[in-house]
Amino acid sequence: MLNFSFKRATEYVFGKGVETKAGEMLKKYGATKVLVHYGQGSVVRSGLLARVEDSINAVGIPYVSLGGVQPNPVDKLVYEGIELCRKESVDFVIAVGGGSVIDSAKAIAAGVLFGGDFWDFYSGKAEMTKALPIATVLTIPAAGSEGSPSTVINKITGDGPIEKRGSGGDCVVPTFSLLNPELSYTLPSYQTACGAVDIMAHVMERYFTNTPDVEITDRLCEAVLLTVIKHAPTAIAQPENYAARSNIYWAGTVAHDDSIGLGREGDWATHLMEHELSALYGVAHGAGLAVMFPAWMEYVCEQDLDRFVRFAKNVWNIDCEGDKKATAMKAILTMKDFFKSLDMPTSFAELGAKKEDIDKLVEILFKGSGGKPIGGFVKLAEEDARKVYEIAAR
Amino acid sequence: MLNFSFKRATEYVFGKGVETKAGEMLKKYGATKVLVHYGQGSVVRSGLLARVEDSINAVGIPYVSLGGVQPNPVDKLVYEGIELCRKESVDFVIAVGGGSVIDSAKAIAAGVLFGGDFWDFYSGKAEMTKALPIATVLTIPAAGSEGSPSTVINKITGDGPIEKRGSGGDCVVPTFSLLNPELSYTLPSYQTACGAVDIMAHVMERYFTNTPDVEITDRLCEAVLLTVIKHAPTAIAQPENYAARSNIYWAGTVAHDDSIGLGREGDWATHLMEHELSALYGVAHGAGLAVMFPAWMEYVCEQDLDRFVRFAKNVWNIDCEGDKKATAMKAILTMKDFFKSLDMPTSFAELGAKKEDIDKLVEILFKGSGGKPIGGFVKLAEEDARKVYEIAAR
Description:
homodimer; 394 residues; two-stranded antiparallel sheet; 49% helix
């Protein structure tokens, strides 16, 4: 186990109806002027936004609202949010939505207190060291952004390709997050499935490690995977099944608040490779991960077959008596079948991605990494990443 | 899953040599005068206390020291610590030791800011709502007090029996905890084993619940149990095995920071019944738990045989094809055998407890509960508790 430091100061309020506590919680944490940030209308139609705003009104804190965050959130709205916050002297940002809305809120919250262009955080030119405090009312269990220091934003330039880049810092870990699993009842099956894959991916990016002797976090990782594997099919078959929805909701937070990744190196190459698919084709992150994770596993599994055998046994309940490589491949195939059972794509073709774009994907990917290899479990150079994309494109 | 709120603001610094960060961390959190609280000499002999004090000296923060905490810490030293802190205007307490030292430090930290008798917190007359900030340098993975709001103190009155009572509050959750697994290298096997049982007990008090649909925390609980079951024998056989020591260290914190108990009711009757054994015979908490947990399980298992079958399968890898009650009993026996393999007692006789004291144990136990039944999974009245003690005394 590696040395580590860990502190997560987010206060979680979990359960039915907790969105109505937004006002009292903002007051508790000293907000005096709030930006309510949200997406493209579903929170308006469902009445959720009104419930949140009503609760803020009830405690008498003034607020301004900014909607319009789209999936794969873009830089333009972040600039708009920063300007609005400065003009209105906002001192607290509350995100009402899924990972895209929360990530956009984090970019705004950090951007407001930064002298330069907020994109510098994402291009690697500046570090996030201070931000307005952030809160979330989560609607989609997936990104884990409600308890993480991470944020991903898309930069759209006139002619060039979209750049999808991550940033983060302790300063954008939410101060509080209100988690009502019922808010996911109305998610389309596709989004529920994308969320399940995203949660599993956050675990697997940590699970596949070269750090030895990490039984406690290995087991915690397996715990989250087993929970999602059990409950995702139920959540899709019975959208209003609270048992399934609540377990997935909390699994999504645990998967990415880093509690299950402590003391171990992670990988994260698959996330980076997927980001380029989302940027180029606008596909949902979870769907892209369903395609890329099996491909990545197939390419890297020989790095540590024992780890893949453990994955086969403890996560997929596969009999591990035979050849290790065969067991590893069986685990990968079983995972792929699971993704398929959730109606997720598992190939470029199903995703709408094109084999002939692979050169372009690799080019932008390594522009983002500054030419350096990506990944921790196996370091992938350009040639390796190309081969992983090729497996996905088979 | 039940609704819950969760916030744990402890900063953990984990790994080799982290005790030397005590000074810089105290400075980071604004300490201006520190009480260094410790036990009965082993931290002096090992040089640990000197390393901690040197690091505090290095940042120029004045401190006073108070040693002498004994296992099953007593009220007398708490009064002394409170007086010392007031006299010296201490504003931060750092505990260097195991659960007893940390619990004593918590009592002092809360007592300093309380107008009345600190024992009121433990007798149920007052609630802990404010305390000096606390830090820990942990030496024994067991009590989980380094990340929990709990504290247990023994009141010794002239003639009457010793009262062992718990209290707690968010205000005594440590501000930071320095966790160096190497500090447990010198633990005697017996203490290592007691710690392992205590960690497992903290999980099992949460695991046995009537709350339905808690897969995520069920799995997280199982993760911690499996880790301890794997590594405790290694830690005893090879005291300087860092893999074993580090996994147990972190498992001990995870087991009791409540992350694995969220959204579910716990039980805790076994802890209460054990406290009376520790109070009457001065036995180590973990040893008492090794005796009481199997007895409690035998008495209550019919409450939910499916849960015990799950326990048998997922924790003890027992084939669960046959009769549920038989499977449950096999799980209990397997756990008992595991405790025995760690040289833990599993009966009154081995513990040095006496069957003829059962009436006295029950009497003090229910004096502590104000006559109310104890436990959440099964509510035990006096008659039930007597039967559990009788099973332990067989």
